[in-house]
Amino acid sequence: MRRIKEMVIEKALLSSALITIAVTVGIILVLSIEAIAFFSEVSIIDFFTDTQWTPLFADKHFGILPLLSGTLLTSFIAIAFAVPVGLSISIYISEYAPKSFRRTVKPALELLAAVPTVVYGFFALTVVTPFLQSFIPGLSGFNALSAGLVMGIMIIPFISSLSEDALHAVPHSLREAAYGMGSTKLQNAFKVMVPAASSGIIVSIILAISRAIGETMIVAIAAGQQPRLTLDPTVPVETITAYIVQVSLGDVQHGSLEYRTIFAAGITLFVFTFLLNTISYRIRKRFQEKYE
Amino acid sequence: MSKLKTKESIIDSDIKRKYKLQAEGVKVFYDDFMAIKGIDMSIKANKVTAFIGPSGCGKSTFLRLFNRMNDYVDGFRMEGKITIDGGNIYKKKINVEQLRKQVGMVFQKPNPFPKSIFENVAYGLKIQGIKDKRFLQEKVEESLKQVALWDEVKDGLNKSALALSGGQQQRLCIARTLAVEPSVILMDEPTSALDPLSTAKIEELIYELKKEYTIVIVTHNMQQASRVSDYTAFFYMGELIEYDQTKKIFTNPEKQQTENYITGRFG
């Protein structure tokens, strides 16, 4: 009886593992099949070189570059804002703040990641954009800057929390060594702790980038829906994710070429985040070996 | 007036020559727990002084008072006075970083930085703002020679210090400490994580180093205390039970407790 119970439990655990794998494989399959169908009609060279993305207009162009530039621009702004802030927070918490501060502030920070992204989107649109408009004349109502900054706020806890974990995981003996040699707190933090935790910190940044690239609601609401190849953060842009939302919500015919564009865009996005996650996985593995 | 001054400074330097470190009425608390219960002690310059005693007797805590490494422990509080060369190191205006350059420390587990061998030894000089490459190279070589590690690592100074063996890492940590030219070296069970051969090398090194440095070593190893030290202090339950020449402690201790401990009857 006991053996049967053991066996049932084991198979149940196995099947839950298999389900997640099956779902992943399924997603990749659907993406690939639809994308292949898309690329049988649109040349992959045009897809990557055409500078216009107008699949819903009469004059159709299928260049992913404008969407890609929108995604990279908003993500870059988010990262440029979140990395310095997130790292400062993590260094402060792990090297300067009293332990009680860590216990209360860290969970509070992680709450930032729990705010629904749609709330962030409206925060960007109705608070941050008007605020920025007051000293950036000509800032459009929808723009990459405001969306990027708010996305930055959203990913701060990814960076601060994971980096702080990495700093916290550095053996205490190294901190003692640094102080024993006469380091100031600042020297201890930047010459010993940060280099020692560098792989964990890099992983946190990569995961944050991955999160920013995949983020949908904030950019769909606040960055606009105008695909354009630009690095100007003050004008409306459209990201890959925002485009997918736009088409999914619209009345595009199922199975049409217009419909398939979202899978082509989707697989581009997937390749990006997959690569980033793989890199971070590799780095994390190397990091674990170092301290074991 | 001037005569008086000279007289004073003669007395001062006389104390300096005799006692490097002094503790007066030292009590240490962690929150409400009293870890050190009032210790007076004077430690001679250019000698090796060993602290022995069972775990939790306060010997490590006491050692760490001399470079203020307890400052980071939550709830730490000290009463009394600790002086180095006559100067109170717990007065308000003391520069703790400067103090730690003068009082180096070697820890129980070898703790090299995850940097190259060269960077490890040069660290203490670099954080003082020394950038002269030539000087750094000379100093690194000199320090590594002092710990007899130079021949083993001279062809791979840029290799990671973590690739060295435990014994080599510990000698590297000593070299790192020597590079900033301290006058006192505190060693907190420096060989407890090492094999007997590496231990022997470190002990030889300690014997060499006492010509130039005042060394205080905490050890659990009675043989080690008797081999390397000139003076031995026996701690028990936060008190200094007996402190004398090592030979005296190990052959003819005054107190019964000391005898019990060194003969292995407890602890």
UniProtKB/TrEMBL annotation, chain A:
Keyword Amino-acid biosynthesis: no
GO molecular function: phosphate transmembrane transporter activity
Endoplasmic reticulum recorded as keyword: no
Annotated protein name in UniProt: Phosphate transport system permease protein
Function: Part of the binding-protein-dependent transport system for phosphate; probably responsible for the translocation of the substrate across the membrane.
Classification via Pfam families: BPD_transp_1 (PF00528)
Main location: membrane
Spans traversing the lipid bilayer: 12-39, 64-87, 108-132, 144-167, 188-209, 262-281
InterPro entries recorded: MetI-like (IPR000515), MetI-like_sf (IPR035906), Phosphate_PstC (IPR011864)
Recorded family membership: Belongs to the binding-protein-dependent transport system permease family. CysTW subfamily.
ABC transmembrane type-1 domain segment(s): 68-280
UniProt entry keywords in alphabetical sequence: Cell membrane, Membrane, Phosphate transport, Transmembrane, Transmembrane helix, Transport
Subcellular localization(s) per the UniProt record: Cell membrane
Domain of life: Bacteria
GO CC, alphabetical: plasma membrane
Membrane disposition: Multi-pass membrane protein
One Gene Ontology biological process: phosphate ion transport
From TrEMBL, chain B:
A Pfam family recorded for this sequence: ABC_tran
GO MF terms held by the record: ATP binding; ATP hydrolysis activity; phosphate transmembrane transporter activity
CDD domains (alphabetical): ABC_PstB_phosphate_transporter (cd03260)
The protein's role, per its UniProt record: Part of the ABC transporter complex PstSACB involved in phosphate import. Responsible for energy coupling to the transport system.
The keyword Hydrolase appears for this protein: no
Top-rank lineage group of the source organism: Bacteria
Membrane-topology annotation of the record: Peripheral membrane protein
PANTHER family membership: ABC TRANSPORTER I FAMILY MEMBER 17
Source organism per UniProt: Salinimicrobium marinum
Cellular compartment(s): Cell inner membrane
Protein name: Phosphate import ATP-binding protein PstB
One BP term from GO: phosphate ion transmembrane transport
Chief place where the protein resides: membrane
